[in-house]
From TrEMBL:
Coarse class of the protein's main subcellular location: membrane
Designated name of the protein: ABC transporter permease
Organism: Marinicrinis sediminis
Cellular location(s): Cell inner membrane; Cell membrane
Organism classification: Bacteria, Bacillati, Bacillota, Bacilli, Bacillales
Keyword entries, A-Z: Cell inner membrane, Cell membrane, Membrane, Transmembrane, Transmembrane helix, Transport
Similarity comment text for this entry: Belongs to the binding-protein-dependent transport system permease family.
Amino acid sequence: MSKWMHRMHVGITMLILILVTLPLVPLFLGAFSLRMPWPQLIPDSWSLRAWTYMFSSSSGTGEAIITSIGIAMIVTLINLILAIPAADALSRYQFKGKRWIEAVLYAPIIIPAFVSVMGMHLTFIRLGLTESVFGVVLAHLSPSLPYMIRALMISFGTLGFEWEEQGRMLGAGRFQRFRWIVLPHILPGIIAGSGLSMLVSLSQYLITFLVGGGQVVTIPILLFPFASGGDPTIAAAYTLVFAGLAAGALWGLDMILNAYYRKRSRAKSI
């Protein structure tokens, strides 16, 4: 039975890896082809044309990568500051209207994106926030904040108040209780929420296009014209770059979490 279960787990893992990596194969082939007319799966000839263009000084790819990462990091930091007290209140306290507040917070991921974006765009025009990085950052908070709150609510939901009460009885102040009791417990939620927040921010095209007004250029802004029929080869190359940014962000957050737990385990062993 043990060997059968092991083989089943290995088989399921391999199936998941195949399903995840299979869509990347045509993208990889297309990114290194001279041209790849539909519906061909194998290119007629190979070329670095897409990569030469993408990393040329005129393409603006480098600036778009820096802008995309910068906006995603700022959005994630603001989300974290807003989500920690919100998730704490929604998970560990009971108060009137709690369900309505949750419904409002989750509305951006339930209501069709086009509806919320158009209302946001009109409001930002009146406030003079369009065509600026600051406006794009504020706009990215709406679709990404609910994921951060949800991830932290799961962590806060298993915390309770007992450990904090014990810390208070031992003389720990509010900041000390948060630093040594709350923060270590919710760290997995912070990492998970940060990963989701960065992915959602990195992938925003419509919000960035409308609020940024073409002045704030991110990777999706560069990718979309090629993906919509301009040049599938360059679109494939940009898609691989975007996938690399997303994977790099998740890998970095995973490294931070692993380093933290290794440090904790070394401290406990001492």
